[in-house]
Amino acid sequence: MEKQRVDSKKWVVLSVVILVFLASILLVVNQFVAQADQTAVKNIENSPQPDVKFNEMVYDFGTIQQGEKVVHMYRFKNKGQAPFIIESIKTSCGCTVPKNYTKKVLPGKEGHIEVIFNSKNFLGNIRKTITVRSNDPDEPGINLSIKGMVIADVVVAPPRSLFGLIKKGQSPTRRVVIKQGSTKKLEVT
């Protein structure tokens, strides 16, 4: 029985020694990984990166007639040390379309994004967003905007069919509001 106690104590001591040894190895490995992560971050920070700067982020086209198209060129410069690459361009609706753009801009060079806004289905104040996804680490998603006022010569409310289906013998009446949307002379006949 005494021998079993001694063997049991040896087993406990041996287990503790093994656990301490394994814990030491884990500490060394964690320190090595942390140093490797810091080195990788420093390498990324010190490596050449693109840095894009747009001349303007918001373009205000002022007031236009409904149905007109607005074409605008957003200009930018790559002030970084690596090529700037546009990965994708998305707009907030199909009425705003990026047409021509510079996909890759070398350091120190300029690029552009041409955008066309079609006002056919709009009245009043509008604001549309153009999102540019790129390899710029500081701004991988850049939001540009186009805004302004869309007016019409005449605005009729309600804009849909005034009476709908009319049956024989009915005398429907509706209230219609007609507003002048521009400075042109309005004459109702």
List the helices and strands and how they pair.
Layout: H1 2-46, E1 52-54, E2 58-65, E3 69-78, E4 84-91, E5 96-101, E6 104-105, E7 110-118, E8 124-134, E9 141-151, E10 154-157, E11 177-180
Parallel strand pairs: 2-9
Antiparallel strand pairs: 1-3, 3-7, 4-6, 4-8, 5-7, 8-9, 10-11
User: Which CATH class of the domain at 52-151 applies here?
Assistant: Mainly Beta
Largest sheet: 5 strands, mixed
Write down the CATH topology of the domain at 52-151. Answer: Immunoglobulin-like
The N- to C-terminal Cα distance equals 119 Å
Task: Provide the low-confidence segments as ranges.
Answer: none
By CATH, the architecture of the domain at 52-151 is named Sandwich
Share of β-strand residues: 35-45%
Estimated helix fraction: 10-25%
Reading the helices and strands in chain order gives HEEEEEEEEEEE
Shape: elongated
- Determine Rg (CA atoms, Å): 34 Å
CATH superfamily of the domain at 52-151: Immunoglobulins
Q: SS-based structural class?
A: alpha+beta
Number of helical elements: 1
Spatial order of strands in the largest sheet:
2-9-8-4-6
